[in-house]
Write a structure and sequence with these properties.
Keywords: Signal. By secondary structure, the protein is α+β, with helices and mostly antiparallel strands. It is built from 17 helices and 24 strands. A six-stranded antiparallel sheet has the order 14-15-16-21-18-19. A five-stranded antiparallel sheet has the order 5-8-9-11-12. Strand 14 and strand 15 (470-473) form a beta hairpin. Helix 4 (106-118) runs parallel beside helix 7 (167-183), helix 11 (279-293) packs parallel to helix 13 (345-361) and helix 13 (345-361) runs antiparallel to helix 14. The longest helix is centred in the middle third of the chain and has 19 residues, at 190-208. It is globular.
Length: 570
């Protein structure tokens, strides 16, 4: 490069740093219908809630009606070790010492393990037990499926939903396992299990060859299957997320090929393929593959599929919007049409897992995701009896059994349970009594499996000095990621510009870079700094080392070789 050209390039870089263009924010139509500032407003401490849940639920000596909520399963399925069982719902008659102690669900135990781990609890050494290692028993090698499943064996699987006939139930435990694996990369035998799952998923995708229109997939026979459950083509999102995680972990490009193949199948769907929990992972992967692998997936379409409630097979499944008798319930995830709307605690927690870190890879959705999370964080407290007024609960008189850490399974506009149709919306309730009609008690409306995922919110959400403006940690659930600097999303729901305080390390100076404005907004910060967020807008702040070396690669801006902005406004 000649001297004149070098000078020209340097000048251009300086101009880009000082006069970058604002990233145009994209809308999610469902989020546009939500209030900027939901009411009544209160953000509870989800981090503390998750820690309290773990301490309370894993107490083998807990006292009280129906307690403890944990037991030891000595059947030693798949691996020669005893494992823990957690009740899916309070007093579920299928569980505990019933059915030889074998009926417990990965959705519950894996979710609780992940939730605790995300808020800093070491589940490998707790009460002299390794709860992480215990999760291996859900790896169904005895059946030849060789993937994680919702139960340890088929003997008890028909007692509940899913297992070997309902695709999302078979897929989701593998996403949960990989998430736990990200937290405990050195856990013995996890490498082998993770690779085996990736191989199964790669072969399954190759067999499906772009056609995911099946009820489930038999991973032992390697055959797609159809039954009375409608097709679940969003299973492609689950395959893709696991395979891309395997690629990032092991570096085998075969897994990248499989992830891309599954994503191609997902994007090719002619109608909204949403079934249960998997579609938001498709939206996340669309943004991440576009950023990291230079793909051109339609992130906007996949977000619409995740939010808008236009699913056909699982009619109306998406994100709820509404004010029910003065209560903003917008942001909760579930059926938008069932009895006027039925949002679920676990689904809402788990949607944040992929959707919040998605903003790292596409900051054009910062405002939309920030607004959704403010609504979801506000509404999720209503699942818990201590935060929902008694007149809007089915069993407020029995709330003591929840010990302040277990929420109702859902919030519904018009109760679908006998005897509660007089309660005005919103109604906090759960489906537990319907699972074993005439046997499961009223208390089974309290959901342990949903409440155990509180650590997802707990790892992401922090309050700031401004009531109504949250700090959302974009790295907390961005799993199997490349090296990154601390990155936070701030959404301002108010009309006017607000100053928000950002706390940083006292002994290390950083520069604050906003990926939305595409520029540095503060230099040489230590301890704290204030940023300005204009009304109704968002900022994505990356804390980069002060005076770091800035370089560019394609559309990416890097500091000291680490990507800060995947879509720098060059």
């Amino acid at each position: 490069m000649n001297t004149l050209l070098k000078i020209t390039v340097c000048c251009l870089l300086v101009l880009n740093l000082s006069a970058s263009a604002q990233v145009k924010q994209q809308s999610i139509s469902r989020v546009d219908q939500m209030p900027n500032y939901p009411k009544p407003f209160q953000i509870i401490d989800y981090n503390k809630l998750a820690k309290d849940f773990d301490k309370t639920i894993y107490d083998f000596d807990a006292k009280g009606k129906f307690w403890p909520m944990v037991w030891i399963d000595k059947s030693q399925k798949n691996f020669p070790q005893d494992i823990v069982g957690l009740y899916t719902a309070v007093a579920d008659v299928r569980q505990g010492t019933n059915n030889k102690g074998m009926f417990h669900e990965a959705l519950c135990t894996m979710g609780a393990t992940l939730g605790a781990s995300l808020v800093g609890i070491d589940k490998t050494n707790q009460q002299n037990r390794n709860y992480v290692s215990m999760l291996k028993n859900y790896f169904n090698k005895d059946t030849g499926w060789d993937i994680m499943m919702n139960n340890t064996c088929p003997e008890v699987a028909l007692l509940g939903g899913g297992y070997g006939r309902d695709w999302w139930y078979d897929l989701y435990p593998n996403l949960l396992f990989y998430a736990v694996y990200d937290q405990y990369p050195k856990e013995p035998e996890f490498d082998k299990i993770a690779k085996t799952i990736a191989e199964k998923f790669f072969k399954a995708d190759s067999t499906l060859n772009g056609n995911y229109n099946y009820s489930f997939f038999d991973y032992a026979k390697m055959k797609p299957m159809t039954n009375n459950i409608c097709a679940q083509p969003d299973a492609a999102a689950g395959h893709a997320w696991v395979l891309y995680s395997a690629y990032k972990k092991f570096g085998d490009k075969k897994y990248l090929k499989g992830a891309v193949s599954a994503m191609n199948a997902l994007e090719a769907q002619p109608i909204n393929p949403t079934y249960e929990l998997l579609m938001p992972f498709g939206a996340y992967l669309a943004a991440r593959l576009n950023a990291e692998e230079d793909k051109k997936y339609d992130t906007n379409k996949m977000l619409a599929w995740s939010f808008d409630g236009t699913a056909i097979c699982r009619e109306g499944w998406g994100v709820l919007v509404g004010n029910w008798n003065g209560f903003d319930i917008s942001g909760t995830v579930g059926s938008t049409v069932d009895h006027g709307g039925y949002g679920f605690l676990m689904n809402t927690y788990d949607a944040a897992w992929p959707l919040v870190p998605m903003v790292r890879y596409d900051q054009s959705y910062a405002r939309a995701i920030g607004k959704w999370m403010l609504n979801a964080a506000n509404a999720c407290r209503f699942f818990y009896p201590q935060y929902m007024p008694d007149e809007h609960e089915t069993i407020p008189e029995l709330a003591e059994v929840s010990k302040g850490v277990i929420g109702y399974e859902g919030i519904i506009k018009k109760s679908n349970l006998a005897g509660y149709d007089h309660i005005q919306a919103p109604v906090a309730q759960g489906d537990g009594p319907l699972w074993v009609a005439g046997e499961n008690p009223k208390e089974s409306q309290f959901s342990i499996y949903g409440s155990g995922h509180a650590g997802i919110f707990g790892s992401i959400i922090r309050k700031t000095n401004v009531e109504g403006i949250l700090q959302l940690n974009l790295l907390a659930t961005d799993l199997f990621r490349d090296k990154a600097y601390p990155t936070y999303l701030y959404y301002n729901p108010f009309d006017g510009e607000i100053r928000v305080t950002i706390k940083t390390a006292k002994n290390k100076k950083v520069d604050l870079y906003d990926t939305v404005s595409g520029k540095f907004i503060a230099r040489n910060v230590s301890a704290s700094s204030q940023i300005k967020v204009s009304g109704g807008n968002a900022a994505v702040i990356v804390l980069v080392p002060a005076k770091g070396k800035i370089t560019y690669r394609d559309t990416k801006m890097l500091v000291n070789g680490i990507v800060v902005d995947y879509h720098a406004q060059l």
